[in-house]
Amino acid sequence: MIEIKVTTTRRTEAINITQKIMKEVKGMEGRLLHIYTPHTTCGIVINEEADPDVMKDILDGLERIAPHNYPYAHREGNADAHIKSSITGCSVTIPFEKGTMKLGAWQGIFLMEFDGPRERKVFVTLL
């Protein structure tokens, strides 16, 4: 298992971690790559990396679904982050062959920060 640290700089943001992961697993053997974050207020998603407006639209859409300023019962002030993390999920699994991830032409892997800025951990396991 490989641990990658990701430092976020804003309360909500999408950070492309594809290259960090590729660097760590290049040339390794396995059939599946599992990427997981052990936090309850961020997520891991695969989506388009070619156009940054896609991730902006996703973050904007999640904000409309679970607005930060809604009067939630959770008193910590980050209930929206928990909801957004539940929607995105905290892991993805990608086919892996001949030392490379089998992502689509436009796909990238993103850490979705919903309660930053923070330092986040991402665990990468090759099976």
Describe this structure in words.
The structure is a single chain. It contains 3 helices and 8 strands, in the order ββαββααββββ. It has 127 residues and is of the alpha+beta class. It has one domain (2-126): Jelly Rolls (Sandwich), CATH 2.60.120.460. It has a 5-stranded antiparallel sheet with strand order 1-8-3-5-6, with helices on one face. It has a 3-stranded antiparallel sheet with strand order 2-7-4. A hairpin with a 2-residue loop joins strand 5 and strand 6 (100-101). The termini are close together.
Averaging pLDDT over every residue, what do you get? Answer: 97
What would you report as the Rg, rounded to the nearest angstrom? 15 Å
The total of helices stands at 3
Tell me about the largest β-sheet: 5 strands, antiparallel
CATH fold field value? Jelly Rolls
Q: Report strand %.
A: 35-45%
SSE map:
Layout: E1 2-7, E2 13-16, H1 18-25, E3 32-36, E4 42-48, H2 52-65, H3 79-88, E5 91-97, E6 100-101, E7 107-113, E8 119-126
Antiparallel strand pairs: 1-8, 2-7, 3-5, 3-8, 4-7, 5-6
In a nutshell, what does this entry contain?
The chain is α+β, with helices and mostly antiparallel strands and 127 residues long. The chain has helices spanning 18-25, 52-65, 79-88; strands spanning 2-7, 13-16, 32-36, 42-48, 91-97, 100-101, 107-113, 119-126.
Defining traits:
single chain, 127 residues, alpha+beta, Jelly Rolls, five-stranded antiparallel beta sheet, three-stranded antiparallel beta sheet, 25% helix, elongated
